Amino acid sequence: MMAPKDIIDTLAGIEPGSTLDAIRARRLQARENAQKSYLSLFEPVDPGDFSLAERAAVAAFVTGLHGESPVAAFYRDKLGANADGAALVEPIQIEIERGKTTGPYGAFPAGPLSAENKAGLIYRVSAERKPQLGNRLVAALEHAHLLVFRPRDAASADMKALLAAGWSTTGIVTFSQLVAFLSFQVRVVSGLRTLAAASA
Predict the structure, then answer these.
(1) pTM above the 0.85 mark?
(2) At CA 51, angle to CA 163 and CA 146, rounded to 5?
(3) What is the rounded average pLDDT for all residues in the chain?
(4) I need a labelling partner for 48 at 20 to 30 A (CA). Which of 38, 112, 156, 173 fits?
(5) What integer pLDDT is reported at residue 175 of this predicted model?
(6) Spatial contact of 82 and 53, defined as CB atoms under 8 Å apart
């Protein structure tokens, strides 16, 4: 059985034998671990109570918040290709536009870092989209936005909101790993595409 093509190579447009392929090969373990992370988060043998459609919806939202890119397009297409996710593409796209901002925002505990406190958008899913998305995804998108733009403000109350919306503790852990992976993936792909453009 043929191994799936490396997702970061695919999104960055890296061809076998290219200069960037050689650069990535120098960090083989990091390359392999990133691929394993993608497969475990987006193509798990058993997704448990965090469905593949929900994973794709969160991914489309998070990568869309980072701006239009091959990564955002990939996850938007992935959501659209899922039988349970196709109807979510439009509401997710609308919520991306509503949630776009710059960051990071938030407040540090009282002390020297308080000088860096910065107020910003506290995102909430629109009332019109809540019935389309359902309680679980509404809570997920709001929490994902928090992790992307206001990570320093994350508190136990935010976890309780996910639990109240029907997320399990295991699901929340996987969800957090997924959002962190996506932020990493967006940055790596962006950096590699910048290198490719510069070398061209």
Answers:
(1) yes
(2) 50
(3) 92
(4) 156
(5) 97
(6) yes
Name the CA radius of gyration of the chain, rounded: 18
pLDDT band at residue 5 using 50, 70 and 90 as cut-offs: confident
- Spatial neighbors of 168 by CB under 8 A, at least 6 apart, are 48, 49
The encoded tokens of residue 39 equal: 């497969």
- List all residues 6 or more positions away from 162 whose beta carbon is below 8 Å from its beta carbon: 139, 140, 143, 172, 175
Q: Which residues contact 153 (CB under 8 A, 6 or more apart)?
A: 105, 106, 107, 146
72-120 pLDDT per residue, tens: 999 999 999 999 999 999 999 999 999 999 878 877 778 777 777 788 8
Residue 123 pLDDT exceeds 60: yes
* Contact residues for 126 (Cβ-Cβ < 8 A; gap 6+): 94, 95, 98
CA count, 13 A, side-chain hemisphere, 29: 0
Rounded to the nearest 5°, which phi and psi values hold at 121? -60, 130
